[in-house]
Amino acid sequence: MRKLKWTKKEKIACAVAWSAAAVILCGAMGNYELKAKMAYHGQIVTSADSSASSMPDAAAASLVSMPSVSPTPLPTATPVPPTATPAPTATSTPAPPTATPVPAEATYPMTYSDSTAQITVIREWYGQAWCYAAHIVLTDYSRFSSSCANGAYGAGTETTSSAAARLGAILCVNGDYSSPNLGYAVARGGTVWNDKADYSPALYNANTGRLFWGDEGSPTGGTQLSSLVSSGQVTDTFCFRPAGLRDGQIRSTGEGSRAQRTFMGTNGKPGDIWIVVSDGRMNDGESSGLTMDECMAYLQSKGCTFGIPLDGGGSSTMVFQGKVLNAAAGQERAVVDFAYVR
Asked: For residue 136, how far is the Cα from the chain centroid?
């Protein structure tokens, strides 16, 4: 078969045709630079470089003289405005729940009064602590009493708030911690729970309204408790520590530690009793607490001539009309006994 040969004119015409096709194609694609590769005599030429000058003059002239083709612009996409992601709303983290707030000073004095009882509670700073002091004046002396936790000796422990609700108490504080393992003689509201020779630091008689000394050397010291109760001389015992205030004089313990305290005293008048709870150990953010001698000095400042400490520290709690007054609110310790007014 005869091999075909291209003449010079045919070659130039072919190159021109390829160039025109490339220009049209690139224009339709919106590309202003000729990036199509053109072949001529085995050489690759792009419009981005100067290799077009290596073409034969006629081919180059043909490229220059060709009418330019305006590219058809592609439709411009309308930019979609970015959707703003709403910033998260700053939510303040709620403070951890706190105990029932201690009432502000403006709410004091708090009072309760009926035909046979009058109670006035004050809040004041003394020594290095906030003190919650209840002055009780009764004409029905049986309204002051003591109780074992859950209503029975050795029946476990109970919070002061729970005891106040159970007893229907207007005022209730933690008691003297007469736990069975300590072996104290115990009488609660005229019921003898642990009968033995009595040397209780303090005794109460609901028949006469007297809170008095009962320790060794007292008129009742060493007497069988059941005999004292049956004879109507005693209804309640308090045994935490020896009396710190007797006959109007402080009997110093020399103890300098500070803590929450519960203590009570009397001026000797029937049915006239002070019960005090102090904060301490910074449980309220302010109070360091009271020493034992300061407790007795406080009672002395209220006109008391006899006073005793009850259980203290984290046990110290005062509930008045269903509300915990001191900083024990919300973190009450369950205890074994209570003193209260109903």
From this structure: 33
